[in-house]
């Protein structure tokens, strides 16, 4: 978290240079490699990473973790990854383990590996999340008049769930948000408008601060994302894939099923009693769900963690570590430059 804060304060120009136009775009996402962190130095992690998006640096990203897993196994440059040769290879499962230190903690990544030592793209990469949990179930959020959207139909409140999977998510059904027709690319702008107002309401209301407070550390966070789920495909139906549309940061849209939200939603479902340890659920985004050649993510509750709190220890805080599986593929290699005569410099821009 200290390196994340330092990046925000002193090195944000590099994020803007890469993520924003003309080199990136509004929905660009990336990672800054950190070979040295405090946990790498103590031997508790193998490598570190900072995640970046159109509005800053996030605490967790599942799809970036999956992609980094493959890259780090394939990396033979000791200047980039000094500890590559120290990674543990399991000959029985043909996987390589990486302890990746990210702002929310250490995630354990398992990368399918070929005999030649390179990652195997035909099998999914998986990671075990940081403790994930519900922070609010069926919470009524009252919306001030200036934060209401037309599709509410005169309502002044909504009901949603809140959960954590390395970042804080609000999970709301499409119908509850005011879109009974479900998720559609045709409604992207209206969905973005509604979720932006909902997120603004939660983050500005001190009475709702408990929804973004860590149940184990009491550290206060902010609502990172509003995730809309299709009512017709919900997590309590094991035979189907839950389809979701994730708006995060500055209304950025996740093309993937959002690995952090998979961990959060599994933690939420476990708290609700909708699944048990080891049970799997499938997740799609608006994009993967409509393209049959693209596979979504699979999530399952890996292990339960309990921590007692309160003066008498009577409050039981239950969380789970979640196994998230997904695929990643290489697209190419790029070198970006900023000439002295370039009026944009390294700042970039968004329209």
From TrEMBL:
SUPFAM superfamilies: Diaminopimelate epimerase-like. It comes from the Eukaryota. Its EC number is 4.2.1.77. InterPro entries: Pro_racemase_fam. Belongs to the proline racemase family. This is trans-L-3-hydroxyproline dehydratase. It comes from Talaromyces marneffei (strain ATCC 18224 / CBS 334.59 / QM 7333). It catalyses: trans-3-hydroxy-L-proline = 1-pyrroline-2-carboxylate + H2O. GO terms for molecular function: trans-L-3-hydroxyproline dehydratase activity.
């Amino acid at each position: 978290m200290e390196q994340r804060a330092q990046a925000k304060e002193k090195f944000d120009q590099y994020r803007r240079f890469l993520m924003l136009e003309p080199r990136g775009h509004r929905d660009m996402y990336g990672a800054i490699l950190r070979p040295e962190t405090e946990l790498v130095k103590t031997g508790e992690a193998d490598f570190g990473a900072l995640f970046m998006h159109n509005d800053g640096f996030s605490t967790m990203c599942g799809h970036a973790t999956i992609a980094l897993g493959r890259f780090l196994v394939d990396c033979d440059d000791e200047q980039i990854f000094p500890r590559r040769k120290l990674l543990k290879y399991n000959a029985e499962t043909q996987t390589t383990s990486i302890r990746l230190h990210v702002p929310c903690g250490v995630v354990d990544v398992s990368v399918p590996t070929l005999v030649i030592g390179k990652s195997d793209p035909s099998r999914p990469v998986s990671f075990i999340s940081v403790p994930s949990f519900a922070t609010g179930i069926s919470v009524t959020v009252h919306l001030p008049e200036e934060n209401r959207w037309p599709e509410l139909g005169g309502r002044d409140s909504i009901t949603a769930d809140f959960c954590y999977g390395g970042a804080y998510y609000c999970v709301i059904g499409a119908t509850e948000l005011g879109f009974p027709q479900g998720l559609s690319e045709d409604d992207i702008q209206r969905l973005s408008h509604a979720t932006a107002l909902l997120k603004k309401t939660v983050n500005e209301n001190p009475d709702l601060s408990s929804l973004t407070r860590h149940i184990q550390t009491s550290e206060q966070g902010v609502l990172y994302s509003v995730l809309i789920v299709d009512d017709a495909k919900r997590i309590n139906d094991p035979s189907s894939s839950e389809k979701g549309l994730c708006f995060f940061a500055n209304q950025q849209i996740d093309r993937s099923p959002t690995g952090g939200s998979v961990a959060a939603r599994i933690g939420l479902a476990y708290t609700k009693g909708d699944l048990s340890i080891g049970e799997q659920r499938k997740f799609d985004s608006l994009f993967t769900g409509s393209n049959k050649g693209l596979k979504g993510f699979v999530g399952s509750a890996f292990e339960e963690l309990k921590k007692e709190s309160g003066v008498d220890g009577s409050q039981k805080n239950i969380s789970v570590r979640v196994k998230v599986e997904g695929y990643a593929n290489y697209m190419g290699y790029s070198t970006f430059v900023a000439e002295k005569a370039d009026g944009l410099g390294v700042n970039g821009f968004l329209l």
